[in-house]
Design brief:
Largest sheet: 6 strands, mixed
Helix content: 25-40%
Number of strands: 11
Mean pLDDT: 97
Number of domains: 1
Structural class: alpha/beta
Strand order of the largest sheet: 3-1-6-7-11-10
Number of helices: 6
Radius of gyration: 15 Å
Order of helices and strands: EEHEEEEHHEHEHEEEH
Distance between the termini: 10 Å
CATH superfamily: Class I glutamine amidotransferase (GATase) domain
CATH topology: Rossmann fold
């Protein structure tokens, strides 16, 4: 059965972390509404490609343009079955938007599936929804998870972690595991 999924994004979201979930979930028959604060359906956001090339951290290159298909100011979280939060640099500033944090809190208050990958977890730390939760993310986000009362769990870069309604992964190499866990959760809502 088709579900409605809200995908939170912003400029310099990680390219694979928005493109792959958006396309894969749509391929499964779900309606995925990609939104960005301050932007409307049809507007574009810029993406960044993060790669693992043997340096001490990921490298960043220009990505593609991604077209939003819904308007942030018009969404009602009550109309959605799940929330997807990609990483990249966008979560850095999206977590400063109180409406974004209110949306996140709605999904946790109603125990709806929330799937966050990489730095997307930064939005969850700012929303104060990680108390006593087991969470994975890009390792550089571990101190924020702990400061927010969560337990950071290190998993392989291709792994995912499920804690109740929360599905997290360290980065885009985990898409097969992360999206499979999200698909399972969507069957149950």
């Amino acid at each position: 059965m088709s579900k409605r999924i809200l995908l939170l994004a912003g400029d310099f979201v990680e390219d694979y972390e928005i493109m792959v979930p958006f396309q894969a979930l749509a391929m499964l028959g779900h309606q995925v509404d990609a939104v960005c604060p301050g932007k409307q359906a049809g507007d574009k956001i810029r993406t960044a490609i993060h790669d693992f090339e043997g340096d001490q951290t990921y490298t960043e290159k220009p990505g593609h343009q991604f077209s939003l298909n819904a308007t942030f100011d018009q969404i009602d979280p009550a109309h959605y079955n799940a929330l997807v939060i990609p990483g990249g640099r966008a979560p850095e500033y999206l977590r400063l938007n109180e409406r974004v944090l209110e949306l996140v809190r709605h999904f946790f208050a109603f125990a709806k599936p929330v799937a966050a990958v990489c730095h997307g977890v930064q939005i969850l730390t700012a929303a104060h929804v990680l108390e006593n939760r087991r969470v994975t993310a890009y390792p550089a986000v571990a101190p924020e998870i702990r400061a927010a009362g969560g337990t950071y769990v290190e998993v392989p870069m291709t792994g995912a972690l499920v804690d109740d309604n929360l599905i997290t992964a360290p980065a885009w190499p985990a898409h097969p595991a992360w999206l499979a866990r999200l698909a399972e959760a969507l069957r149950e809502v």
